[in-house]
Amino acid sequence: MGSVRPDLSCRVYPEPVDHFDRLPDSLILLVFNMIGDVKALGRCCVVSKRFHSLVPQVDNVVVRVDCVISDDDGSSPSSASAAAAAAATDKSRHPISSILRLVFTGLLKPFQSLSQFISASASPRRVAASSALEDGEFDQSSVTHHSPTQVLKNFNEIKFLRIELPSGELGIDDGVLLKWRADFGSTLDNCVILGASSVTHPSTTGNNNNTPFPDEQSTNNEANAENDNGSMPESFYTSGGLKLRVVWTISSLIAASARHYLLQPIIAEHRTLDSLVLTDTDGQGVLCMNREQLEELRVKPLSASSASKRTLVPALNMRLWYAPHLELPDGTVLKGATLVAIRPSEQHKKDVVGSDGNWVASAFDEPYGAAARMLVKRRTYCLEMNSF
């Protein structure tokens, strides 16, 4: 019986096909646009030369700011942390904290490459740092700070930009509702503010320990009366209720104008923008700009306030609606509910209840959109405010 000899002939095997490389750039860009998050895109751009060249072409970007520190902070991580803590403390003491500079903290080496798209490829050191990030390792010595302007400077095709702050600027008491939405061009186009002294959600009905504000305590009977004609009770003027609403309005306008001021360099550098939204994770305030408004700011520079780093607020016409007790369709109850619709005095007056009233009712997500629609049916109070 003869032995079987192994086949020692040389055979050429084809290299394995990477089917991912066969995907067209347009499809990969579609995936990147669905990712959106600028940190995730920063990691993607160190994966390969192809990704590195495609990430700058993304047109839908979301920038989530990790923290906010003051202008006079140092460059070290420890000083940044101290400044952030000081800013948080200051915010709790006063409804309007000092104008802050947006920075990114806790971003490791691979994300720094997002600010250096110009290089041909990622270095091994950056890739190693990326692995450390995925493994949950964190080296405090590698913490760096990047403003949104720096992070976005090498994106070439941004059309839809959303920037999210870690929290709203206005320090309010627990249980108090305060939301605003503002549209800007070179100056304020309109602003809608919704506030309430206390909010009771359906899940907490019957177990709410919120102490009513003075204007609520004296108006409970009026709130429950079936013949409520939408008028403000006399106690609203004498107990500080109206003064509180004025403070809410001014604070919201200052917060909105400060955000608008900070967006100038981004708007100037990214002429492809169709939509820009600057909001916060608390859902307290939203600043919006569409393509026409963005172009207006480029053509007509904003007027800055001489007192601080914010856009000058023009003279305003305001309409105010108030309800001491407002029960929404989903069962949420607002006490001392107040809606304020604001437009510059020089603008053509438009109806906020009729066909153009959508800009008020659509300012907030549900259930607060329903609150706006209910409030505009009540008696309207007109106010004026000088430029500041």
UniProtKB/TrEMBL annotation:
<dbReference type="InterPro" id="IPR044809">
    <property type="entry name" value="AUF1-like"/>
</dbReference>
<dbReference type="InterPro" id="IPR036047">
    <property type="entry name" value="F-box-like_dom_sf"/>
</dbReference>
<protein>
    <submittedName>
        <fullName>F-box protein</fullName>
    </submittedName>
</protein>
<feature type="region of interest" description="Disordered">
    <location>
        <begin position="199"/>
        <end position="232"/>
    </location>
</feature>
